[in-house]
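In this supplementary section we document a worked example of the pipeline. Step one takes a protein sequence of length 755 as its only input; no multiple sequence alignment statistics are reported here. Step two produces a three-dimensional model, which step three serialises into structure tokens for compact storage. The input and output of this example are shown verbatim.
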Amino acid sequence: MRRGRLGIFLAGGAMLAMAATAHAQTAPAASTQEADPSEIIVTATKEKQTLQQVPISVGVVNGKAMADQGVRLFTDLQSSVPNLQIDNTNGNYAITIRGLGSGSSNLAFEQSVGLFVDGVYSSRARSLQVPFLDIERVEVVRGPQGALFGKNTNAGAISIITRRPTRDFQAEARIGGEMEHGGFNASTYVSAPISNTLSLRLSGEAGRADGYIDNRLTGQKDNSSKYLAGRAQLLWQPTSDFEALLKVEAFRNEIDGSNAVYNNLGAASCALCNLVRNASGGANAQQYPGFWRTSRGNPAEFDFTKSRTGELTMTWTPDDWNITSITAFQKIDASRTFNTIPGGLPLLNTLQAERTTQFSQEVRAAKNIVDGIKATVGVTYTHADSSILQDVYYTGNAAGLATVPDGLAHRPFDQKSWSLSPYAILDADLTSQLKFNGSLRYSYEDKTARAQSVFTGVRRPANNLDYDLSGERREKLWDYSARLRYEFSKDIYAYLSYATGTKGGGFISNDGLLLYNIINNKGRFDFDSERARSWELGTKMRLLDRRLDIDVALFRTKFHNLQVSSYNGTAFITGNAAEAKSQGVELDTRFRPNHVLSMGLSGAYLDAKYIDYPGGPCVYNAPSTCSPLTNNLAGSPLVRAPKWKGSGYVQVDVPVSADLVLTARGSADHTTRSYMQGDLNPLNSQAPYTRYDARIAIHNSGDKWEIALVGRNLSNEVIATQAFNTPLLYTAASNSHVVMIAPPRTISIEAMIRY
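The serialised model returned by step three reads:
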């Protein structure tokens, strides 16, 4: 049956191409309309609209600005978008929007924030580790988007749009060197027509970032990285109303070492903590977060990700129709090892590996039914196979510690899934000023999984039981949205929105206590789907002769059966929280008083709490009688949900001669405390911080060349991206914690030439 559906979609795509070519002789020329160059164009509603017209809270980051400011990885993106947080952890990437997202500990979790590249959904967070390459823009759509984008977007969606081939010749080369820690980046693209109907675009990037963690035990610089990326696109436009875009790309990123350091190694009363401390330099052992550590991994720590993608997008626009077919294939291979207890004793080391392949096909058609009413219908099919492996090595014998005897927990996990999702979108002009947008989507999803755990050696803990479990889940999910937009004038809009989002359930992949918890009615092999319902009221204004933009959004989202996963020092707690809420306000402003000065200010207030969470972990200072079986985290803040976030920038572009322009930009972003585990221990959190970036450049007035000096994290803030209770070392008395930290201050010099 699956092959039949797949054949229908592929045949439909082929028929689309043949029908478009046959229609060429009678098709009218496509109309063109020049857009206001000051407008920001987005495609969050599956059609091109200005940012002001979209009745959704959307943060947009321009690709040129990203390249200028050295934004090369996803984790650099959050400083530009209110209420977005992206953290690299020792499990999956943790992505939250408005305080809502998936836990990072269960490796089989899909994201609550969907990732899309040129309209294609990626099911695995590992695809976030590849560098940005030749990007047109990034759209961060906040709030549930299940009806518009599909499954796993109940907290929001991140949509990346790459630059397309052009009908005129374009070329650019950038090269830069990092002066604080060492490293380089080089990128280039060439775009040109190769015939009357064909255009080609080639893009490439390579770079290296030397390690920023000074390992005083080994003398090495840890957490260095090197990356390589390439993309080729071929655009075929045989007629005025048909085009086919073929894209092939490959990325790889390799990290040597780790950025895990202690945030309190442990109390003196902890005998094992003292052994680790003495083997790590004694009084000189790394104890609190900084850009250094005293650790020796066995085997050596590394993190490797490779991704390959192929995509064919065909668009046919006969008469009043707009028909699109998107066919895509993606393969991700990744593996990492890390010293779970950083220090001089190799007591606990972990290997995680993943291989995922995904095929997707989307076909949609849009048509103006009558004047002022447009309908879009479509269907998406996705098939994904994932194999995830976690090996946990206990190596106390090799370290001379009989209290941590040797052992190996081998935990493979395999999952196959497919989904079919038809949807419909209706846009209607109710009056000349009042517009309506409604969406409805049905999703059928089928998942089968097998999880195994085999322990060799002395079991630690003793209830780490062997198991071989299989399961299947079939879900039928509905999502819908309704939005009203009122146009007070061509420069002032207001909107009201109600939307839902659903994330399908799944299976627990890497829990050594899984069978023990099932036997004792403390857990399940699978977890249920989660659902979000959200209201949003906003306004988008362009004032002072369109020199001042003000976007404001008020929102309230309720989550039911929120999927959570956290580590309490001895075990993973994975399942569904009963209910949570997220409410607040977002502000985004941009001011361009003249051609010399521009500035912007963004901010967000967030109140994100559990309404009801029975079975949640005990908070760090709870009485000793607390048990997760009877505990309820109602009223506690959600993890990775800072109450306040804000950022701002000021830029001046000063002509210094008839052909030279000096550009200077300074920016800052501030974040209040963010907890990273449900126990709310301050040592498992990131304290409030303010980070500063700056850039100064000289370029010619035609932007044909540029030399720039770029500084990031100039205040050299120690910023944690993950925190957890140290395995084996943690008790309430020892209070040992590990955090993973983001890069320190970097200063780069860069040169660009454009043809």
